[in-house]
Write a structure and sequence with these properties.
The complex is a heterodimer. By secondary structure, chain A is of the alpha/beta class. Chain A contains 13 helices and 15 strands. By secondary structure, chain B is α/β, with parallel strands linked by helices. Chain B is 36% helix and 17% strand. Chain B is globular, with a radius of gyration of 17 Å. The chains are: A alpha/beta, B alpha/beta.
């Protein structure tokens, strides 16, 4: 483990390298440029490949190709760029090609702004491309979490042969913090991942139609298409066991703050502050926003909870749709929101929570 | 009796082509299969199939292949080749895939000098989707989306990919062939062989454009389509080598 002071984007890039990622293709867009810039220098040092593609669309297709050839591969972009990549992401999901990508979110819709925002929640969790596929989506609240989640994302992608998204708002991506970096995988480990564990990789095989590697994002028979969708649905159900969320004070909470990413960080500090003042405040900070931590909301005593306060850097609120599904009308849901590149302020959340607590 | 010709092992045993009568996709893939067999490359070959009728080869070829998103074959091939340089990576793309939706990917891969081979099948029309206009549709040629025929003022002119890519510094080999006669089929095979050789020797980007027919969507029978190639297509798309940085090698 090495302790260093790093910017979020660069830390994500280094975590990917340490996880054995040896192929990155991307296209410049603010505020994620530090990821490709860092990897343009770093990849050659580990005998990996960096390519600046001619577009987001081309870059994700390059990643689709490299991952199909068995290499741990990654791309990154920011909100409108992710929309362009949705074509290739859908293909990876369809062809069962494991990739990892990071979305360093900015304002939206459209070209939006270049400042941090959390406006991509629905795209990330509900429809990252055509065809109703799902992905695990990690949402770090600190540079350390961004590192840890990116590092593990490759294992999840490999396990499921499915894309994994690290959804990181522009604040976390551009924030500098001290982080512990995980150990870098050895050349042997990287080679093992590529060669031994990926018999499906498309690298040329002996002439054998039945056992050729066939990376195919389509199914031309109705039976095969339905079977694919059923298998995928079973995989999505299995992710229930992979839910990650930070919880605190849920046993006797009267107000429960819920937020992810940068907002989660602010909500956590507000919850801690109020608890030091003797208030009964709980926190549910989703670290996976898909699968969503519905179970955390089942732990609440709804006879006691006055309201759940959903905190998002998004107008309208988006995660609140999942919170609503979790709460099931058992208590009111309030929102505390900002957008446009405005960062969620502690005072704003404190005021909203105090209002519910009638302080 | 001595056996002097047999079906290539590159095509799935017992498989019957589902292509339309007179279509030349079967011929093109047969040539590729024969070449991979002659050059002992099946264990290294990775085909990147574009969208369109050419993509149907996935059911016929007996070696590794991957279907690219619409137009992105050259980008997908870039990813495969760069991450696994030992593979022989070639794309197989139609005119819509290579020259319309994938134009940026095609030109950019060529401009980077990616060490891949492109087989570009140009029949001047969109076959699989039902006869819509392609970037290579001839002036005056009817298409379902140009019912009165292609008009330059409205649709622009047919695009010449060999000549367009010849403006770039990096490509090593660009040749336009056809499969309309036995001689031209032979020349096409030699051209693809050369494209593969270039890649094996690490020379960079090669592209073979094959002028073919689409009798179904051209609205004529197979023999008439051969005549149309000769009379209409080849004057617009003249056969021959546009770029060859390693002349003489076959």
């Amino acid at each position: 483990m090495a302790r260093v002071f790093m910017k979020g984007c660069e830390a994500i890039a280094e975590a990917a390298v340490r996880a054995g990622c040896r192929f990155f293709a991307g296209y410049p867009i603010t505020p994620q440029n530090e990821i490709p810039e860092y990897l343009a220098r770093r990849m050659p040092e580990v005998h990996g490949v960096f390519i600046q593609g001619e577009s987001e669309v081309a870059s994700i297709s390059m990643v689709y190709g490299a991952a199909s050839a068995g290499t741990r591969s990654m791309t990154s972009s920011s909100s409108p760029g992710i929309s362009l990549k949705s074509e290739g992401i859908s293909y990876c999901a369809a062809a069962r090609v494991p990739i990892v990508y990071a979305n360093i979110c900015r304002g939206g819709p459209g070209v939006g702004s270049i400042q941090p925002a959390q406006m991509d929640y629905l795209q990330a969790t509900k429809a990252s491309g055509n065809g109703g596929f799902e992905m695990m989506v990690f949402a770090p609240s600190s540079v350390q979490e961004a590192v840890d989640m990116t590092y593990k994302a490759f294992d999840y992608a490999d396990r499921d042969r499915n894309p994994v998204l690290v959804l990181c708002d522009g604040l976390i991506g551009t924030l500098m913090e001290p982080v512990e970096l995980p150990d870098i995988k050895t050349d042997q480990e990287v080679a093992d991942i590529k060669e031994s564990k990926r018999p499906w990789a498309c690298v040329g095989h002996k002439l054998d139609y039945a056992n050729r590697s066939w990376i195919q994002p389509g199914h031309w028979s109705t039976i095969a298409m339905q079977q694919f969708n059923e298998r995928a649905a079973a995989m999505y159900d299995s992710w229930e066991n992979d839910v990650q969320a930070e919880e605190s004070g849920l046993e006797d909470a009267e107000v429960v703050l819920t937020a992810y990413g940068a907002s989660g960080r602010v909500a956590k500090s507000v919850a801690e502050l109020l608890k030091t003042r003797g208030e009964k405040v709980g926190l549910i900070r989703p670290q996976t926003i898909h699968p969503f931590p519905f179970a955390s909301f089942e732990k609440l005593d709804y006879g006691r909870v006055k309201a759940v306060l959903d905190v998002e850097m998004s107008i309208p609120a988006l995660m609140v749709q999942d919170v609503d599904r979790a709460v099931k009308n058992r208590c009111p849901i309030h929102t505390c929101l900002c957008s446009g590149g405005n960062i969620m302020k502690k005072g704003q959340v404190l005021e909203a929570a105090a209002k519910i607590l009638e302080l | 009796m001595e056996k002097i010709y047999s079906r290539t092992q590159g095509i799935r045993d017992g498989m019957v082509s589902g292509f339309c009568p007179g279509c030349m996709h079967g011929t093109a893939m047969k040539l590729i299969g024969e070449l991979l067999e002659e050059m002992d490359l099946f264990h290294r070959a990775v085909a990147v199939l574009g969208i369109g009728c050419g993509g149907l080869h996935m059911d016929y070829m007996a070696f590794d292949n991957i279907t690219a998103p619409h137009g992105r074959a050259c980008a997908v091939a870039t990813g495969i080749k760069r991450s696994n340089p030992e593979s022989l990576v070639f794309t197989y793309q139609g005119d819509g895939d290579f020259a319309a939706i994938g134009l940026a990917e095609s030109i950019s891969a060529a401009n980077r000098g990616e060490n891949i081979s492109v087989v570009f099948v140009n029949n001047g029309i969109y076959g699989m989707t039902g006869g819509q206009m392609a970037p290579t549709t001839l002036l005056g040629m009817k298409a379902s989306t140009a019912p009165k025929g292609r008009v330059a003022e409205e649709h622009g002119y047919p695009m010449h990919m060999c000549e367009i890519l010849n403006q770039l510094e990096a490509p090593v080999y660009l040749e336009r062939t056809s499969c309309n006669t036995p001689q031209n089929v032979f020349k096409t095979k030699n051209a693809i062989r050369k494209a593969f050789r270039n890649q094996l020797e690490g020379r960079g980007f090669s592209m073979v454009e094959i002028v073919t027919s689409c009798p179904t969507n051209w609205g004529m029978d197979a023999l008439a389509a051969l005549g149309y190639i000769e009379e209409k297509m080849l004057p617009e798309f003249p056969l021959g080598v546009t770029r060859d940085k390693i002349p003489g090698q076959q």
